[in-house]
Write a structure and sequence with these properties.
8 helices, 2 domains, globular, single chain, 76% helix, mainly alpha
Length: 192
């Protein structure tokens, strides 16, 4: 569990530089230079992610059960994951209405992903992993919206075709995860 927590601190700590504004991030870029900053940021992110994967895998070997989720939570998780994958697609498809309306769909995708996994898993390792990501995404979303307001950021209005593409890509990724990829990457088959 210690490795998982350390990995979360490294990964989420690296990704928390912009909490409360850009001052810390900008100061680091000024001190290190843009190239060094990006290299260090990428290295710490990768190290944190590897530690999370290893730590979570070790914690899953000796699970500490906190509760047994009701069977219906699995179906709700599937639905929430559909929303999460559409939000994830919205972060990458230009000129879609979802991004225009919500502004930070990647962070919202992480928030929905973490919540979806919290409600259907009752072990300590799951609570630590997904609870940390949920808390981080809530704080980051609020911070990002506040930064947008202070900087008077204007988002271009969304268009119909890119929005339909966004939804289509999100549904496709969700189906691939549901039917195949989750089992390969995570070791848990969702549909037998």
């Amino acid at each position: 569990m210690a490795l998982l927590i350390f990995g979360l601190l490294v990964f989420l700590g690296t990704h928390a530089l912009r909490f409360g504004g850009d001052a810390r991030r900008d100061a680091l870029i000024a001190r290190l230079g843009a190239g060094r900053f990006k290299g260090l940021y990428s290295a710490l992110s990768a190290i944190g992610l590897v530690l999370i994967v290893l730590g979570f895998g070790m914690a899953r070997e000796m699970p500490v059960l906190l509760w047994v989720p009701p069977a219906g939570m699995r179906h709700l998780t599937f639905l929430l994951m559909l929303v999460s994958m559409v939000l994830l697609a919205a972060a990458y498809v230009p000129r879609n209405a979802i991004r225009a309306r919500l502004h930070h769909p990647m962070v919202l995708s992480v928030k929905v992903w973490a919540l979806a996994h919290l409600i259907c898993n009752g072990t300590l390792a799951h609570v630590v992993l997904f609870g940390a990501f949920l808390l981080w995404s809530v704080v980051l979303f609020r911070s990002s919206r506040r930064r947008d307001a202070l900087q008077e950021v204007q988002y271009a209005p969304g268009e119909t075709v890119p929005t339909l593409i966004t939804v289509g890509v999100g549904v496709f990724v969700w189906l691939v995860l549901l039917g195949w990829l989750h089992g390969i990457l995570i070791g848990v088959r969702l549909i037998a």
